[in-house]
Amino acid sequence: MFSLIARLLLIVPALIAGWFVSKDDISYWIVALAIALVFIVLTIVVELYVRPLLARFRFRR
């Protein structure tokens, strides 16, 4: 189950890396990994900071 979730999450960075780097290039997976790390960091930031702010503003109304 965990491997299925990981594969689904890594499809998007692989597609984005495919726009900028040829899949036959050696650095393709390095670029895909860098994009995946950025997505992971952005997900953590949204979970830690944006969701509590949205919840706070939702209850004020």
Describe the model.
This protein has one domain. 5% of the residues are buried. Helix content is 85%, strand content 0%. The chain contains 2 helices and no strands. The termini are far apart. It has 61 residues and is mainly alpha-helical.
Short description:
Keywords: Membrane, Transmembrane, Transmembrane helix. This protein is mainly α and about 60 residues long.
Instruction: Kindly state the percentage of residues in helix.
Output: over 70%
Gap from first CA to last CA: 40 Å
Low-pLDDT runs of 5+ residues are: none
Q: Can you tell me the overall shape? A: elongated
Which range does the strand content fall in?
under 5%
- Rg for CA atoms: 16 Å
The figure for the number of domains is: 1
Strand segment tally: 0
The overall pLDDT, averaged over residues, is: 83
Total count of helical runs of at least 4 residues: 2
In sequence order, what are the helices and strands, one letter per element? HH
How would you characterize the largest beta sheet? Answer: none
What structural class do you assign from the helix and strand content? mainly alpha
